[in-house]
Amino acid sequence: MKKNYHTYFKYALTFGMASAVVSCNTRYLKEGEMLYTGAEINIENDTISKKEKKNLKSALEDNLTPKPNSSFLGLRPKLFFYNIAKEPKKEKGFNYWLKYKVGEKPVLLGDVDREFNKDIIENYSENQGYFNANATYDTVSRNKKAKVIYTLRPGARYLISDVKFQQDSTLVNREIQNLTDKTLLKKGQPFDLDVIKSERERIDNGLKERGFYYFHPDNIIVQADSTISKNHKVELNVKLKDNTPDLSTQQFSIDKVVVFPNYNIRDVKEGKYSVPMNPDSLQKYAHEDIYVIDPEHKFKPKIFDRALYFKRGDLYNRTNHNLTLNRLISLGVFKFVKNEFEVSDSLQHKFDAYYLLTPRELQSLRLEALGRTNSANYAGSELNLNWTHRNFFRGAEQFKASVYGAFDVQIGGPENAKNIFRAGSNVQLSIPRIVAPFRFNSSSAFVPRTNITLGYEFQNRTEYYTLNTFTGSFGYVWKENARKEHDLKILDITYVSPANITPLYDSISQKSDAMRRVVERQLIFGPTYSYTYTNTMLPKANTIYYKGTLDLAGNITGLLTGANVKKDKEKSIFGVPFSQYAKIENDFRFYHKFNEKTSLATRAIAGVAYPYGNSEYIPFSRQFFSGGSNSVRAFRARTLGPGSFDPRTIESGYYFDQSGDIKLELNAEYRANLYKFLNVAVFADAGNVWLVNEDTDRPGAKFSKEFLSEIAVGAGVGLRLDFSILILRLDLAMPLRVPYYERGDRWTFDKINFGDSSWRKDNLILNIAIGYPF
């Protein structure tokens, strides 16, 4: 019975609190005021289906104004907070935040224009084909609350009986007739004003592709005749308006193409040049069919020949118009791109195309300093000096050079992790075209690029070893559109040369082949290719991101030389055995947006690298790693796996930098905004890495049919401080399943003990990072 008393008390308390919230919402109303609780729409018609009624009712409700105060389970908590908060004296402080940010001003019956809403209901219904719609309204009130009930009698919905496109002998009409086969107006479909508007825009778009630059959708009229039939039918007649301007009916072609690559509004005001220009003054700037007004010769004219889709004599079309503007922007050297057309010959219907381009600063120097920490118990800093030239050879080539230095200091964790110092430099030349012995034609809005890179890095792990890494690549990047991107490196070279290997590390590597391979000389070269698809930039509830990468190292060289390390036929180049393997990695992400403040992000990673021919193992720098702030966050960076191998069994304690040839990972994260820049997340991660071949030093590391039982699982909560220019992320995670525990003890639910300080120290992992993990 005691338990029942508690239950009754709980229900009574809940009911009492709810009643207090409800009563508080009306207690603050003045005499004669009523809280508006919303509208109800009743549709009285037996001739239309339930589905049509439902769709019509939903659309009408969306159009009614104002909306009532938001509610949750019948309560209006935002209104409650507005009422209990004191009126603030200033536009800041707790009271202001509670009343106007958390709270919501009451919507009163007096705020509702019922006659206006009635007109909206009737007009919208008629626009949907219910030509005889009639609406009335009534107001129901009780206890200082009121709602409005609208009753709609729409009558039968009119259907399209026929669609006629009026014909005449004009050029514009002939082009309209050529567009009729894809009309949106179909016989038997309901009359719908929105579809009619879309049809006018479709015709306008089609004419824009055929040279009618000055045409406008308003030049089209669609007449509806409902008198031809008594069976609720309507005939549509599509025609050109009688008052259509003559300019809209003319088909224009390109006369001259003029480019101002150093356009500045100041120069125009000072009279240095004007638009349009005198044709005689253009001749000295002629480059083939393009006039480039560049007296200082800052840009090579041929870059515009590649970027511009309009040539002299071409018929105007909107596709080439937009492609040209987008390609000029994607050159990366202009911050503003403006386009104007000026009629040059009204009799022959020709106009000049002017492109007014305002360049960015051609050179920039940037110094970056940052501090960082990670879950592998390292804290450090990095300093970067970057120089960029956006027009290196006067052809919009981007040249980037950077030098950097960084250090990471061990602040806990493995005793023998040691500190890391890195320094290096990189240079990249990006050319806005495909440099190749063949011709590459692209109709994309994005300029394809040829990228050439060179780099060097010096890395010193104190008391262990030094690595000198040299890199270089030559390849192409091109986009089909805003969603699809290709990155092909014809040649991607990495050469790693170890130095200063200490006796301490040498003794460690004698006990582990994996540790020994870290400091082996490595020569990796071959093509790599990646494909990226994303629509995350679109305003949709569900969006995806996918990136697939293929890395083929030494495959042709290995084939030509007959390399086979398993048959003692290892081949070398300049005394260094080259790596031969095939590697593929897939990264798929799915994002679901519940509303403006909450979303769900998920990611799946699957990758495999297989050594063959001249290699028995995948080079350490090309293997997969797991754990850390952007992976399985309940495990420290690079300490997870491979497989069920327990890194704690390594005698030296050197158990970080565990790697594998196969990787599987799943991540899910629920994200919500609490207040302005403060966001929270709840996440779960699962994954691991495995080896392709057996490793006697790491039992359980090979991928097998038992791989599902070797998946690590972790979960946690996080804070994100979103300062627009920077997102600082703090994630606190704990392991739920540890793959290197005994098979029956891998799930750790029964071991969780937040009161045990030693348990918290070993099992609560704090990740501090910049940006989102995926």
Strand order of the largest sheet: 12-13-14-15-16-17-18-19-20-23-24-25-26-27-28-29
Structural class: alpha+beta
Number of helices: 15
Beta-strand residue fraction: 35-45%
Please outline the major beta sheet.
Answer: 16 strands, antiparallel
CA-atom Rg in angstroms = 35 Å
State the low-pLDDT regions, or none. Answer: 1-21
Helix content: 10-25%
| Straight-line distance between termini | 52 Å
Shape: globular
Indicate the mean pLDDT.
88
Task: Kindly state the number of beta strands.
Answer: 29
Domain Bacterial surface antigen (D15): 468-749
Main location: membrane
Subcellular location: Membrane
Keywords: Cell outer membrane, Membrane, Signal, Transmembrane
